[in-house]
Amino acid sequence: MPMKTDKDWKNILEPEVYRILREKGTERAFTGLFDRHFEAGTYVCAGCEETLFHSDSKFDSHCGWPAFDDANEGKVKQEKDTTSGMIRVEILCAKCDGHLGHVFTDGPTKTGLRYCVNSLALKFKNKP
Predict the structure, then answer these.
(1) CATH of residue 23
(2) What gap in Å lies between CA 22 and CA 28, rounded to an integer?
(3) pLDDT tens track for 62-75
(4) Which of 11, 30, 79, 114 could form a disulfide with 64 if both were Cys (CB 3.0 to 4.6 A apart)?
(5) Is residue 1 part of a domain?
(6) How would residue 3 be classed by pLDDT, with cut points 50, 70 and 90?
(7) Domain of 88, in residue numbers
């Protein structure tokens, strides 16, 4: 996939989705479409539609954002994030570099991970 320019992304994405994916924004807690969404299917990147998470890895973390305990192998990359006076691990779509959110090691499942993702960074595809 050829890399899109900033202008390309602005033409393709809704302004709030652009702010999240391309400017590393975040949505307010408990406002996202997928926070309390638990249908069977897959969650894909809102920018490039790469399949990132399966619904069976989603859990209710009570943090206000969709939470997953695992990502599809090789589809989500991690980078150190030192913004906002904290040290965190940012998660990005490995295909288009879209900002998804952050991953934490306080998850309640056997993986111990909590991928905390902005709803606007995702689209959902129902399981056929």
Answers:
(1) 2.170.150.20
(2) 17
(3) 999 999 999 999 99
(4) 30
(5) no
(6) confident
(7) 6-126
